[in-house]
């Protein structure tokens, strides 16, 4: 039982990071029909940007700020203007393929510029332990979980409680009507890309101290977040959050109670089951397309 | 008659010139290593060690007056790619093949080199590699059959552990180590409290460490590659595991210390080679390496360096550059540091290509390897 509690806490901490990345997936899909297969690499890159700034002599806090700013510029604005806008007019599939190419490009560039070797990355959460229900739990696990929950709460507050959030939702649900009632749709879409860039930078900051900074980190993260988004519901932010947490917990429990070798297969089995029996995801809503 | 004489003289001149050119031509070596992928730390250190040794030897006139030249190919830490790269390298008829470092890649490439009759000096440590009768394969470090008995003895005699959790990576290297250490534990009646297989490149060890915590062993034996060692050390610290952590070179290497930071403190292991060894020649090697590459190498840097000096010493022993005779000349050969300082410590190569030399038991103290015991060469 105590072992189960350890596994649940560790799984929730990792799952919360998957959730942040999965939320980015769903936001991009809802506002611009973009399936970003480079999302994992988007999480990998900010850590390297921060490391580069630190190597230039900047303190960690400044590196974080510059890293986030660079992420907004490259993975938000640059991604939208240089890849999504030109490709989207050719359809969703060419754009999806273009993001696959981008994933390979980012991964290889990171390997080329930095190194194929892993690098250590400092943690923003101090080391140490806390006791919960008589169990000693690492402060880092709790910190990751708390920061991720705060990020998700902040995002949902922005979307549901502010004028900008309502405009973003309007732009996502029906861009034509939104334009008629005066919503600056293009600006709202750009804002979504910037939010996604911020979320991946935050995820990078939280996961890299555990995974170490390595060019190949995006493979695992991208796949986990993609599965989380589909399992939870690709068209609902709350679905992506639930999916992320579920995948994190399922991954850890399957590694402990099924087999380490098959741990990667269990979330995929869950994905297949969801597609077969509830294609809209756990919390998603069915979508109909007109032709 | 005169034209015939002139033609003969011309032919003789051309042939002599060709012979001179041949004797002065560089000796070509081929290296296939893990320059990217999960084994990038291994392959990069190995490659840098090779390049450094070649640079030094060439600056002193080369081997038998000929320069050494090496080509590097990337196996991507993938046995399939390694096999293709080795085949390509052998097609260019190198004097000696260097690498790979991963046992799984060595296993699939060794038959190719043997078939071509080219000696292969590699970094793999799986016990089975030198038990197949391959007469062309040579180690640069101890095989598991040499190192695991020492580790098990240390766990039994010094740590007095009665139960141990084994964490191993699910590949040829890890499986070989796990099998060897389990056999040794059985001899000492040490119980295996948990037997945990992990994957190469695994990023998240939370579940594995939870299992260790639940098993409550007296010690943990960790046998995974360097990057995974760093990740699991961090997770072990995160989950508050305080029992002794013991492993081999891959647990206490420089790269692991760099990646794991504080979490590496207290980790102990047997290392065949360490740049912190109390050996003057190794210290000098370390200084040269740091000067050129600006970081402290792990044992793989030493292995790459030694591979080149094995070639130099063996070739000078033969007195000629003879690819076909190389393996025979190295079998049973003892290279002494007195005669060839580049070999750093006296080393003997047996008929299977296994190496015998002194080893070390180290512990990570405040981010540095501290040698606790020097284990003498078995043949002494």
Automatic annotation (TrEMBL), chain A:
Main location class: membrane
CDD domains (alphabetical): TM_PBP1_LivH_like (cd06582)
Stretches of the chain forming a coiled coil according to its record: none
GO biological process annotation, one example: amino acid transport
Cellular component, GO annotation: plasma membrane
Pfam families, sorted: BPD_transp_2
Membrane topology, record value: Multi-pass membrane protein
Keyword line: Amino-acid transport, Cell membrane, Membrane, Transmembrane, Transmembrane helix, Transport
Single GO molecular function: transmembrane transporter activity
Compartment(s) of residence: Cell membrane
Similarity-based family: Belongs to the binding-protein-dependent transport system permease family. LivHM subfamily.
Protein name listed in UniProt: Branched-chain amino acid ABC transporter permease
Origin organism lineage: Bacteria, Pseudomonadati, Pseudomonadota, Alphaproteobacteria, Hyphomicrobiales
């Amino acid at each position: 039982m105590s072992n189960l509690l350890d596994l649940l806490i560790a799984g929730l901490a990792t799952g919360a990071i998957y959730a942040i990345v999965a939320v980015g997936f769903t936001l991009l899909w809802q506002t611009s029909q973009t399936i970003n297969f480079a999302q994992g690499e988007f999480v990998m890159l900010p850590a390297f940007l921060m490391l580069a700034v630190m190597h230039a002599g900047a303190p960690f806090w400044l590196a974080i700020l510059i890293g986030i700013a660079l992420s907004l510029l490259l993975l938000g604005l640059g991604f939208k203007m240089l890849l999504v806008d030109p490709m989207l007019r050719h359809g969703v599939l060419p754009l999806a393929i273009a993001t696959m190419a981008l994933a390979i490009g980012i991964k290889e560039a990171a390997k080329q510029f930095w190194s194929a070797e892993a690098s250590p990355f400092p943690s923003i959460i101090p080391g140490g332990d806390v006791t919960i229900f008589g169990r000693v739990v690492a402060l880092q696990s709790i910190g990751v979980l708390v920061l991720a929950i705060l990020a998700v709460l902040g995002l949902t507050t922005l979307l549901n409680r502010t004028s900008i959030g309502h405009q973003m939702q309007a732009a996502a649900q029906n861009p034509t009507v939104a334009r008629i009632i005066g919503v600056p749709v293009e600006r709202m879409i750009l804002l979504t890309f910037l939010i996604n860039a911020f979320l991946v930078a935050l995820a990078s900051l939280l996961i890299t101290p555990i995974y170490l900074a390595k060019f190949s980190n995006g493979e695992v993260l991208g796949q986990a977040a993609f599965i989380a988004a589909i399992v939870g519901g690709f068209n609902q932010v709350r679905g992506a959050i639930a999916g992320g947490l579920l995948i994190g917990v399922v991954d850890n429990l399957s590694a402990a109670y099924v087999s380490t070798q098959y741990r990667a297969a269990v979330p995929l089995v869950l994905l297949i089951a969801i597609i077969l029996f509830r294609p809209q995801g756990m919390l998603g809503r069915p979508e109909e397309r007109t032709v | 008659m005169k034209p015939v004489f002139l033609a003969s003289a011309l032919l003789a001149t051309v042939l002599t010139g060709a012979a001179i050119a041949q004797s002065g031509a560089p000796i070509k070596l081929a290296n296939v290593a893990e320059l990217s992928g999960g084994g990038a730390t291994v392959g990069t250190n190995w490659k840098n060690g090779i390049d450094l040794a070649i640079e030094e030897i060439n600056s002193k006139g080369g081997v038998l007056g000929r320069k050494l030249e090496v080509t590097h190919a990337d196996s991507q830490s993938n046995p399939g790619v390694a096999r293709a790269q080795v085949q390509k390298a052998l097609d260019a008829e190198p004097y000696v093949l260097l690498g790979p470092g991963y046992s799984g890649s060595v296993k699939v490439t060794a038959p190719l080199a043997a078939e071509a009759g080219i000696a292969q000096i590699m970094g793999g440590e799986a016990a089975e590699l030198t038990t197949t009768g391959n007469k062309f394969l040579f180690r640069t470090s101890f095989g598991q059959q040499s190192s695991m008995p020492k580790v098990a003895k240390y766990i039994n005699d010094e740590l007095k552990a009665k139960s141990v959790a084994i964490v191993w990576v699910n590949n040829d290297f890890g499986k070989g180590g796990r099998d060897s250490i389990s056999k040794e534990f059985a001899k000492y009646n040490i119980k295996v409290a948990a037997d945990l297989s992990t994957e190469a490149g695994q990023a998240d060890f939370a579940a594995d460490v939870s299992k260790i915590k639940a098993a409550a062993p007296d010690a943990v034996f960790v046998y995974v590659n360097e990057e995974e060692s760093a990740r699991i050390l961090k997770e072990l610290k995160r989950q508050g595991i305080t029992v002794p952590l013991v492993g081999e070179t891959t647990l206490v290497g420089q790269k692991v210390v760099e990646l794991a930071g504080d979490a590496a403190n207290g980790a102990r292991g047997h290392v065949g080679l360490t740049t912190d060894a109390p050996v003057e020649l190794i210290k000098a090697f370390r200084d040269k390496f740091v000067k050129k590459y600006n970081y402290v190498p792990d044992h793989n840097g030493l292995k790459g360096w030694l591979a080149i000096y094995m070639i130099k010493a063996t070739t000078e022993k033969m007195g000629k550059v003879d690819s076909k005779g190389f393996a025979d000349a190295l079998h049973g050969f003892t290279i002494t540091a007195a005669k060839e300082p580049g070999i750093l410590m006296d080393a003997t190569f047996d008929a299977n290509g296994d190496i015998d030399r002194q080893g070390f038991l180290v512990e990570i103290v405040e981010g540095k390897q501290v040698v606790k015991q020097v284990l003498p060469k078995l043949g002494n």
